[in-house]
Design goal:
Helix content: 25-40%
InterPro entries: ALO_C, FAD-bd_PCMH, FAD-bd_PCMH-like_sf, FAD-bd_PCMH_sub1, FAD-bd_PCMH_sub2, FAD_lactone_oxidase-like, Oxid_FAD_bind_N, Vanillyl_alc_oxidase_C-sub2
Distance between the termini: 40 Å
CATH class of one domain: Alpha Beta
Shape: globular
Structural class: alpha+beta
Radius of gyration: 21 Å
Protein name: D-arabinono-1,4-lactone oxidase
Pfam families: ALO, FAD_binding_4
Organism: Litoribrevibacter euphylliae
Largest sheet: 8 strands, antiparallel
Keywords: FAD, Flavoprotein, Oxidoreductase
Length: 441
């Protein structure tokens, strides 16, 4: 199994997952919900909310690394509320059921000659989950997925249906586009898309210093640019994506896939961490330059079968190179056993109250650790470096920030909290993790 396509794959009785236990993809978060509710319609959802008592939490694909979905009460999954509700051909918009996984959404958009403006390299999150946490791709002029939302429908903890958009219920719209599942259940989302298009992907090995010294030029010349850095290498894996009219083509598949190599080296280095510097320095021997062209969503998404835990912070764009250099220096100087590549991307600013990109173009820096290894010490070593730059954590990825620290990073924090208090005065949508990051009413 790679990613979970439904709650049924998570909440089941297997040797690794005892009956009644929910766990996320990386297996670092587990709980025993008293009930898992999977409505098939808005009316079923409203009836359940109105008739139920106790806490309610929401879950998407289980890809979040934080305990946002943990509950001993009722866990709500929208995995049966999926599909395309309608579209506007002229405006290139689509109305989608919020439980739709991104990989399914991509296929649906193909059928109406539309494509998402941007997407991350993982496409198994539910649309509702991706929007709730500010999930993103890469592109200096492109916002996170929440920034592509034109309107949405939300069911409050009282069972009331609310509609909001850029011109209707504006405060709710600004709050709900990144909502952490703490304002209600988002059931429908209208996305701004573009006509279906092809992307050309180029992957190369480049010197780290050259890439960082010329990153502004790379951003200007490419619609999407990102790279993967290694603690003990002076080279990076540079990836650029650009729209193209070229005929689709793919390179010949390697004898051993990149994913298989990553899994092999993760297994080896967790047992023999002293090999990490040597393997990192041999990067160019294992990763070869490549080109491919395909429909956009097939280029955006990358197969991920190697499980990991992840911490990600959004750094002010101008500080990104300096922050990354400090991280790499710390890892190397302290001989930290960190094999997994560090992912470096750019995301455009938006106006969403709890978006990590609120009114700030950002460099997104992601730290990973193989799921069989402890990640706590590694992440805690690097968080103070992110703090030096007033960085904001990704809501769906590991961090230790509390509401007192987070409130300082978000100018509209109090406004968002007021909306939360109005919609959920009884705090039914809270759990222990939510109390830590959002604080009291």
């Amino acid at each position: 199994m790679t990613y979970f396509d439904s709650i049924d794959e998570i909440y089941q009785n297997t040797p690794d997952n005892p009956k009644g236990q929910w766990q996320n993809w990386s297996q670092n978060q587990k709980s025993h919900p008293g009930k898992v509710f999977q409505p098939r319609s808005t009316s079923e959802l409203m009836a359940e909310i109105q008739d139920s008592s106790g806490a309610l939490r929401l879950v998407g694909s289980g890809h979040s690394f934080t305990p946002l979905a943990k509950t001993d009460d009722t866990l709500i999954s929208l995995n049966h509320m999926t599909g395309l509700l309608g579209h506007n051909e002229e405006a290139n918009t689509a109305r989608i059921m919020a439980g739709t996984p991104l990989h399914q959404l991509s296929e649906l958009l193909d059928g109406i000659d539309q494509g998402m403006l941007n997407m991350g390299d993982i496409n198994h999150q539910s649309l509702a989950g991706a929007v709730a946490t500010g999930t993103h791709g890469t592109g200096a002029k492109l916002p996170c997925i929440s920034g592509l939302v034109n309107s949405l429908t939300l069911i409050t903890p009282k069972g009331k249906v609310l509609e909001c958009s850029k011109t209707h219920n504006k405060d709710l719209f600004d709050a709900a586009r990144v909502n952490l599942g703490a304002l209600g259940v988002v059931t429908e989302i209208e996305l701004q898309n573009r006509p279906s298009y092809f992307l050309k992907e180029q992957i190369d090995i480049q010197p780290l210093d050259d890439v960082l010294d010329n990153i502004d030029t790379l951003k200007a010349q490419n619609r999407h640019v990102e790279f993967f850095a290694l603690a003990y290498s002076d080279q990076v894996i540079l990836k650029t994506l650009n729209p193209t009219q070229e005929t689709p083509f793919s390179p010949k598949a390697p004898f051993i896939s990149d994913d298989a190599l990553l899994r092999f080296f993760c297994e080896v280095t967790q047992r023999m961490p002293k090999l990490i510097p040597m393997i990192h320095r041999q990067l160019a021997r294992f990763i070869k330059p490549s080109l491919r062209v395909d429909v956009s969503h097939k280029v955006f998404a990358t197969p991920r079968t190697v499980r990991f835990n992840e911490m990600e912070y959004q750094v002010p764009a101008e500080d990104g190179p300096q922050c990354l250099r400090k991280i790499l220096k710390h890892l190397k100087t302290n001989q930290v056993a960190a094999f997994f590549p560090i992912e470096y991307r750019y995301v455009a600013a938006d106006d969403i109250w709890l978006s990590p990109f609120y009114k700030r173009d950002s460099a997104s820096i992601s730290i990973h650790q193989y799921f069989k290894q402890s990640y706590t010490e590694l992440f805690q070593q690097l968080e103070p470096i992110f703090d030096e730059f007033d960085s904001r954590p990704h809501w769906g990825k590991s961090h230790t920030k509390t509401h007192k620290q987070l409130a300082r990073l978000y100018p509209q924090w109090r406004d968002w909290k007021e909306v939360q208090q109005q919609l959920d005065p009884d705090r039914r949508l809270m759990n222990e993790a939510m109390e830590r990051i959002l604080g009291e009413a």
